[in-house]
Write a structure and sequence with these properties.
By secondary structure, the protein is an alpha+beta fold. 30% of the residues lie in helices and 19% in strands. It is built from 5 helices and 14 strands. Strand 13 and strand 14 form a beta hairpin. Helix 4 packs antiparallel against helix 5. The longest helix has 40 residues. It starts with 5 loop residues before the first helix and ends with a strand. The relative contact order is 0.14. About 5% of the residues have low confidence.
């Protein structure tokens, strides 16, 4: 009897008779009757090989002529034509295959290193003032432009109103100077039109010319003063805007340096804002996992994970 292959031998668990019985078929149980060509109730190596290779049932070994016995008439029914190939032989048998599936895989690897913020720094105050409201706590996620803290703005609002009133006053003086200049220019044109008449006075004409120049200079001075008042107003508005401390970029509040009621000066830190973290390992050689700069989820403790980018660093 043909021996079993190494793969088929793995199915042997009970009987030690060199073949696979029906109770040992396992995954072959569904096709047991089809594989069992000689209907012996057991599967040998040739039968299994013929089924999976598509060769069909193995042929019986030839018997020498002098020893051949007359064959008994076969009582097995002939196989239908649907099971025979074009040449009368067995048809190729179907082979079942598994579908190839592409899916992401994860790998767990112990490393020694440190978490470093990709971008981080202290968010500082741009003006002097007392903190009137703190909107964040340590660990909060913020987006660019989110309000972190508020400074007292009453005094700055009053200064803004004062500079706004001064600017309006300067603009009013400009309007007055423009009207006075227009009046003198009109009088000068009237006198100039009398040059050919006896009513023309050269002294008055020259006085009006000097008056026009004086009015022009006064108008220019008032426009300059209005520009200074406008600059003061813009500075007051900027200071008032800066009473609201905002996040300069997306990140996480890693530390608070001040609280409500504290007085901060220009450049004094209010909070620390860190962006997404990177992991920098201290492994070397074969100790490093080959993941390049791919995104990695790091287990910092039994209940804390950090999502970041792996970045190798020199030992």
């Amino acid at each position: 009897m043909p021996p079993l292959s190494d793969r088929a031998k793995e199915l042997k668990t009970k009987n030690k008779n060199g073949v696979i019985d029906r109770d040992e078929a396992g995954a072959l149980a569904a096709s047991f009757d089809e594989i069992d060509c000689d209907k012996s109730g057991a599967l040998d190596g040739n039968e299994i090989r013929g089924f999976f290779s598509g060769e069909g049932c193995p042929k019986a070994a030839a018997v020498p002529a002098q020893a051949a016995q007359p064959a008994a008439p076969s009582t097995a029914p002939a196989k239908p034509a649907a099971q025979r190939g074009p040449g009368g032989g067995e048809r190729s048998r179907a082979v079942r295959v598994d579908k190839i599936v592409i899916e992401p895989m994860s790998q767990t690897y112990p490393v020694i290193g440190r978490l470093a913020a990709r971008r981080g720094g202290q968010v500082a105050a741009r003006i002097n003032g007392a903190i009137s409201d703190m909107r964040v706590s340590e660990g909060d996620r913020v987006k660019k432009g989110d309000v972190i803290a508020m400074l007292a703005k009453e005094r700055l609002a009053a200064e803004r109103d004062k500079y706004q009133a001064a600017y309006r006053s300067r603009m009013a003086t400009i309007a007055t100077a423009e009207a006075e200049l227009a009046k003198v220019q009109q009088e000068l044109r009237r006198i100039e039109g009398l040059k050919k008449s006896a009513a023309f006075s050269r002294a008055k004409f020259e006085n009006l010319q000097r008056d026009v120049e004086t009015r022009k200079a006064a108008l220019m001075e008032r426009r300059t003063q209005a520009g200074e008042a406008e600059a003061e107003l813009k500075r007051a508005e900027i200071d008032l805007y800066n009473t609201t401390i905002r996040a300069p970029y997306n990140g996480i509040i890693s530390e608070k340096h001040s609280e409500v009621g504290a007085y901060v000066s220009v450049s004094a830190p209010v909070v620390s804002d860190d962006q997404r973290h990177e992991y920098r390992d201290r492994g070397r050689g074969a100790d490093r996992p080959d993941i390049g700069s791919e995104s990695a989820r790091l287990s910092v403790s039994s209940s804390t994970t950090a999502l970041g980018t792996w970045q190798r660093s020199a030992p």
